[in-house]
Amino acid sequence: MFTKTDQELEKMGAKITTREIQQQPDLWKEAFQNYTNKKSEIDNFLEKVTSTYPNQKIRVIFTGAGTSAYVGDTLRPYLNRAGDTSRFVFESIPTTDIVSAPLDNLRSEDPTILVSFARSGNSPESVATVELAEKIVKNLYQITITCAPEGHLAKKAENEDANLLLLQPALSNDKGFAMTGSFSCMTLTAALIFDTSAEDKKSAWVDTMIKMGQEVISREDEIQAYADLDYDRITYLGSGSLSGLTREAQLKVLELTAGALTTIFDSSMGFRHGPKSYVNGKTIVFDFMSNDKYTRQYDVDILEEIKGDEICKEVVGVGTSDDNDFSGKNFFIEAGDKDLPEIYQALPDVIFAQTFALMNSIKVNNIPDTPSASGTVNRVVKGVTIHDYE
Q: What's the family (predicted)?
């Protein structure tokens, strides 16, 4: 797909999505530079919040809808290890949960930083979540991470002292139906903000991540070989932050094939507890393998188990090679580093998943740039009624 001309891709209805997947390593360079340029402002903002409440931990709520919610799901496990948990409590709560049950998720007395992830910043739930938080939470601060400067959330944040606006690279505002660069750039930006494990290593980690992303794109023929197999079910597994990533990976398949292929996601350990019933002879299973040596054992265990069961079409480990590798088929990214933290490993991994979803869209004769032929699913959600909250 990535070597086709724009004219060829236009005939397939795939030009926008293909190029938006392909450009992500370049966007990551820009996102990192944006973070570097804003670092003093970011640090001052966080210091202002924490110094105001020196004896309390601050709730950091990552929120968004759909793919934007999965940004938080991917971040939270890693930040519980690598973030400053002496000052922050990291949570991931979708806007859809907050809007439908605000008092289940927002607490009036708890100092809170609401981190809104949004491609357009115009979805009804995103706007309503901010309005509800402002009504309910007495000590509310906000970080708005969005890709559209003209969007409602960005415009609102521009002149609010307690709202830090972090715009993503212009080209991350995906024009295609599926979120790709928006997801990876927003994830990277938030990781850089809250990862306090090793500030001096971030530049090297991002450089490695970029090389890995470029390599995945250059090896599309290997991904196509998996897409050419005879299957109609797809499973994504992982652990920690890579478990959070599985939900985004499976969503790309659902979106780009308009549900023509069924998918499931789970943690590597959780899969045995019933969801494994999904696997049959026409299932392909991928596991995003952790670089943490302890956690990786569980990824390898489930891969070896499924391989030994001989119950699926193919089972594949995805990630970076290490001392403990799956004995079956692997898509190892050679530019990877076995010491790369999982949140940075996640973004080259998601390019693999996005590319595989794109190929499956073509395989089922769908149109990747506009996959919902019925128009019942939209780039920015429609048909939402936001009820008054008193």
A: Belongs to the SIS family. AgaS subfamily.
Tokens of 304: 């070896």
65: CB partners within 8 A, 6+ apart: 94, 95, 96, 123, 125, 126, 381
**294, burial (CB in 10 Å: exposed 0-12, middle 13-18, buried 19+):** exposed
Q: Which residues pair with 235 in a beta bridge?
A: 264, 285
- The answer to whether residue 209 is domain-embedded is no
Residue 155 lies in a domain: yes
Are 251 and 377 in contact, with CB atoms under 8 Å apart?
no
Are both 70 and 126 inside the same structural domain?
Answer: yes
Between 67-82 and 342-363, two packed helices, what is the crossing angle to 10 degrees?
A: 160
Which pLDDT score is estimated for 376? 63
Cβ distance 90 to 44 under 8 Å?
no
By DSSP bridging, strand 163-167 and strand 112-118 are: unpaired
| 84 band by pLDDT with thresholds 50, 70 and 90 | very high
Share of the chain above pLDDT 90, in %: 94
Find the CATH number of the domain harbouring 16: 3.40.50.10490
pLDDT of residue 299: 98
DSSP code of 157?
Answer: H
Q: State the helix-helix crossing angle for 202-218 and 24-52, rounded to 10 degrees.
A: 150
Amino acid 377: pLDDT: 67
Whether 27 contacts 169, CB under 8 Å: yes
Strands 112-118 and 58-63: parallel
* 152, pLDDT greater than 90: yes
Do 229 and 181 lie in one domain? The reply is no
* pLDDT score for 87: 97
pLDDT exceeds cutoff 90 at 47: yes
Residues 13 and 124 in one domain: yes
H or E stretch including 117? strand 112-118
**Domains in the chain, number:** 2
Residue with the bigger pLDDT between 374 and 28: it is 28
DSSP string for residues in 37-97 = HHHHHHHHHHHHHHHHSTTSPEEEEEE-STHHHHHHHHHHHHHHHHS-TTTEEEEE--HHH
The answer on 276 and 129 residing in a single domain is no
Judge whether 88 and 60 are in contact, CB under 8 Å: yes
Is the pLDDT reported for residue 244 higher than 90? yes
* Contacts for 259 with CB less than 8 Å, ≥ 6 apart: none
